[in-house]
Amino acid sequence: MKFFARPGKTNQITPLRITAGTLVVLAASAGLTAANSSPDPTPATEPVAKTTSDWNSSAYRGSVQVVRAKDEKVAAKDKTLEGVVFEDSNKNSKQDANEPGLPNVTVSNSRDVVTTDGQGRYKLPVFENMTAFVTQPRGFQVPVDDDNVAQFSYIHLPEGSPKLKYGGIAPTGELPEAVNFPMVRSAATQSPDQSCAIGADVQTYNQKEVEYARKGAFADLAARTDYTGCGALFIGDLVGNDLSVFAQTRELTSMLNGPARFLPGNHDIDFDSLDGVHEFATFRAKLGPEYYSYDTGKTHVVALNTIEYPTKVPAKRSDYTYQLGKQQLEWLRADIAKVPKNKAIVLAGHSPLLEFFYNDEHSTKEVKDIYKILKGREVVSLGGHTHMSENLRKGDLMKGWLDEVGEAGLPFTHLTVPAVAGQWYDGRVTENGYPTSIQRDGTPPGVLTLDIKNSKITERFTPTGGDDNKQMAVGLNTPKYRAWYEENVDKEYGTVPALKNPLSVSRADLAKDTWVTTNFWMGSTGSTVKISLDGKAPVKSVRTQSLTGETALTGAPYSDPVAIAEQFVHGGGLAEKTSHLWRLELPNNLKVGSHTAQVTATDVHGRSFTDKLEFEVTN
Q1: Cα angle vertex 124, ends 342, 38, to 5°?
Q2: Chosen domain end from 445, 463, 481
């Protein structure tokens, strides 16, 4: 049958405006038919390893196919969106007669979720201001544009958004005859071994900061080829309120060796939209849907919009809260219902579902509903927003979470991803052209990677500069340090004189609590830190937070002296509390002279990292 032959409609080829992330392209001719074959969208064989071919030469570049109706008046009355998901064998972004539709692929209008039939066809209800998108299945890759931004969605907003400072959404016209989603077979997304790069809070306010990001985390990503299949997901606060900088965000993603996807944060908002409908219009037009999902390997990735704005009128920029809203929660429930129980789920949002640092005030409104939807699943949740790292494991508990999780603690791993911007690009600029920007828990800026084997997910932090082996900062917390801290904590950071001889301690001070501190940036419950003093048998350090229902400890005794030394002198945050600091009290009988602390930190996955601290005991 002729797929596009629908009563009262005829096809025409219409050149359309291209909107990044929701690409609209040339329509197909009227003679297009659905292929008779309806293969399983998952290729039959699994590759031994992911492809390592050059991304720039092999990337599938294209766009979503939009077929316009000749009679716009008839189209305006239509309440059903139709289309086909197909294998674009010749990579021309339109379904040719010999290109089969793909069955059992999930498609959504951002509320309802359906799967394609045996010929790859779908039908969805239409409503104003909806975004239709396809969930990329395992073994396939959706197209990317020239900036590597994944193309898998279409906005339906006939009159466009209200006039907004940064453009919003231009009129899309009446409902198309069809919206077709092309994709090609991919050994990279078929492989059970995946590496997914996660970037939080790029948050570039201006061109100077764009250059910091380019020379820092994006240069690191450009040197890697391990994320070609899964791609890179940037989890909000891509810019700093000036949405015109989205153009530079795209310049940065053009450096990548894989698809780029985004979700919005509280600094990606059209703040002049006060109706609670179009606040992410410019984001949607430039970068893609507010929320969606995709499959890679044996993992289902869900990208959520966890920011609600405004909460009152007249609104201020701070008038946002952390919630999904009724429609998005409805979509999430329907989306997860389509996912087989043997798949791992990565649930990403800008703001964390729950967190350690602000455990008594920051939480997603529907967190209990989300936990219920995901019950019995293998899940890792991701958040950013707070500019720090947190590795919270199943069973962890803070006092501020009791209402959400009860005495049992977290139901699955929650990761707070360190910011690409670090402490908002603060601190001294290194010889490599980006700032130290130590965050308020002592973690440097960087990128997180989820290394996935089948359904087992292992997190890997890469500090800006690209050294995966650098996973901790080791320092000395002495009475002298704590006195310096208290003297300067209320001063302007970046103006404080450096502490003299921070790695020396007197014999007298050894009796007043002196610790070797280890800030193990992605350390968690189940991690260990052992220290060998002067070659003697290793001794276990003690984590300052047990995460057994306590409150967050703060102040000089629980601070990271390495981070504080950088922040007080060169600018940055205040690393006075963290969930990943370990301390070993030095014995008070150490001899005068030089000493060495050999540190071995082992994470919950059994990986060990080493560092060394040399210090001096004086009379």
Answers
A1: 60
A2: 463
- Asked if the model's pLDDT at residue 46 lies above 80, the reply is no
- Confirm if 283 and 153 have CB atoms less than 8 A apart: no
User: What stretches of 472-580 adopt beta strand conformation (E)?
Assistant: 472-477, 504-506, 515-520, 528-533, 539-540, 542-543, 548-550
In the chain, the percentage of residues whose pLDDT exceeds 70 is 91
Domain count for the chain? 3
pLDDT in tens, 601-611: 999 999 999 99
Q: Which amino acid, one-letter code, is at 272?
A: D
The pLDDT of residue 30 is 32
Residues 405 and 508 both lie in one domain: no
> Model pTM?
0.91
Compute and round to an integer the Cα radius of gyration of the chain.
26
- Element (H or E) spanning 109, and its range? none
User: 351-397, pLDDT tens digit by residue?
Assistant: 999 999 988 777 999 999 999 999 999 999 999 999 999 999 999 99
Q: For residue 207, what are the CA distances in angstroms to 219, 240, 247?
A: 16, 11, 11
Query: Alpha carbon 309 to chain centroid distance?
Result: 20
Question: What is the arithmetic mean of pLDDT over 421-435?
Answer: 97
Helix (H) / strand (E) element for 583: namely strand 581-585
Tens of pLDDT, residues 208-235: 999 999 999 999 999 999 999 999 999 9
Same domain, 380 and 439: yes
Q: Which of 182, 209, 228 is the last residue of a domain?
A: 182
In this structure, is residue 48 part of a structural domain? no
Question: Does residue 232 lie in a domain region?
Answer: yes
Task: Give residue 437's domain range.
Answer: 194-463
CA distance 511 to 344: 50
Residues 488 and 405 in one domain: no
Residues 285 and 175 in one domain: no
Average pLDDT, the chain: 91
Does 94 map to a domain? yes
pLDDT at 17 over 80: no
Task: Tell me: do 419 and 518 sit in the same domain.
Answer: no
| Mean pLDDT value across residues 137-165 | 98
Residue 565 has pLDDT above 70, yes or no: yes
Residues 176 and 291 placed together within one structural domain of the fold: no
CA distance 270 to 168: 8
Give the other-Cβ count within 10 Å of 215's Cβ: 16
Say if residue 304 is in the same domain as residue 350.
yes
> How long, in residues, is the chain?
619
Q: Which residues lie closer than 8 Å to 197 by C-beta, 6 or more apart?
A: 221, 224, 227, 230, 231, 232, 233, 258, 447, 448, 449
Phi/psi of residue 537, each to 5°? Answer: -60, 135
Same domain flag for 487 and 453: no
How far, in Å, CA of 343 to CA of 294, rounded? 12
Q: What percent of the chain has pLDDT over 90?
A: 85
Note the pLDDT of residue 140: 98
Mean pLDDT of 20-42: 36
Q: Is residue 47 part of a domain?
A: no
Q: Do the beta carbons of residue 152 and residue 133 sit within 8 Å?
A: yes
Residues 6 or more apart from 508 whose CB is under 8 A from it? none
- Residue 557's CATH number: 2.60.40.10
